[in-house]
Amino acid sequence: MPFEIVTADVGDLHRVLDDHARYWGERDLRALHQPVIVREFGSTCLVAQAARDDTRGTGLGHRLYEAFTEAFTEAARRQGAVRLKAVTSVTHHVSVVFHRSVGFAAQAVEDYDGPGRLRVVFTRAASNAADHRTHP
Q: Domain extents for the chain?
């Protein structure tokens, strides 16, 4: 399935929120989709056709994330970034395995998202994302 990654705007964010359940299933992650992030970090906020419930299990999510990581790395490097960072909950095992598979180091950090909120923080050098691909 072809897709294009482009700079996001607030309208893109609203479209994802309008169809939230198709992207995230039962998990209510609407609070994580904040317009202020898009407005403040516009040049590195990217959007692509996301893996909705009708594409689960096809490998699209993995391909999207790899393409997104590559596009984000280039945008971040243009802004002078030398490191990439991602965050997930400790219970999101698929995310932990995936980020490690594309070259991120993982560390559990106590109180990262407030008191008693353990999170896994991933970091990786902002080198060429293609160096970290797990498949062609």
A: 1-81, 82-136
